[in-house]
Design a protein that fits this description.
single chain; 214 residues; mainly beta; Rieske Iron-sulfur Protein; 5-stranded mixed β-sheet; 3-stranded antiparallel β-sheet; binds FE2/S2 (inorganic) cluster
Length: 214
């Protein structure tokens, strides 16, 4: 398995006033998503993992990810069923900020059906608050949002930005639990895929859970 670690600066934010590129409206492949991420601005290391073989991806095989080297504030991306899946290890400060955002969100408790497994219908949308796992595809028209993990905000981001994800195609914002902000084009929270932890907590397997077995 190859890994790429990129240190990104924190000076830029995607400008939502730029003309919309129709080519970005549809998720066309992982390269698009990773390319968007590479050009984004975050203050944290970003780790991309290209784990399974092409054959395994095509078959929709579960993807096992070693999370022992993922540090607080770091995010890794793996490909599962042709889609980018993010695994973010949130810091204590990031976790503490999440409940305060509820009034700004469209579906803070993940009540809408179809995007959140039962085990992720909690304040952090995860099995373990520290680790957030989500499909990195916008619920509007399928672009891949850009991680904007640092608090502080920028052009196009909601007031009081505590870190999250910004979709450059039409300006939708999501918090660090993938919860969509109110009054943006995206109608729903980011999808949480089936996943589970290994018994010793060192690995996450994307694509399986108690309801989905390979
Ligand atoms: S695809 Fe339209 S806001 Fe994300």
């Amino acid at each position: 398995m190859s890994q790429i670690t990129t240190q990104l600066d924190d000076s830029g934010v995607v400008d939502p006033n730029q003309p919309t590129d129709p080519a970005r409206r549809t998720w066309v492949g992982v390269a698009c998503a990773f390319g968007g991420v590479a050009g984004a601005a975050t203050a944290v290391p970003f780790v991309s993992s290209f784990a399974p073989s092409e054959r395994a991806r095509a078959a929709g095989a579960p993807v096992e990810v070693d999370i022992t080297t993922l540090q607080p504030g770091e995010m890794t991306t793996v490909e599962w069923r042709g889609k980018p899946v993010w695994i973010l290890r949130r810091t204590e400060a990031q976790l503490a900020a999440l409940p305060k955002l509820d009034p700004q969100l469209a579906d803070p408790n993940s009540d809408r059906p179809g995007f959140t497994p039962a085990y992720a219908k909690n304040e952090y949308r995860s099995r373990n608050p520290e680790y957030f796992v989500a499909v990195g595809i916008c619920t509007h028209l399928g672009c891949s949002p850009t991680p904007q993990l640092a608090a502080g905000g920028g052009a196009g981001l909601p007031a009081g930005w505590q870190g999250g994800f910004f979709c450059p195609c039409h300006g939708s914002s999501f918090d660090l639990a993938g919860r969509v902000y109110a009054n943006v084009p995206a109608p729903d929270n980011l999808e949480v895929p089936p996943y589970e932890f290994s018994a010793d907590g060192t690995r996450i397997t994307v694509g399986v859970d108690e309801n989905n077995r390979a």
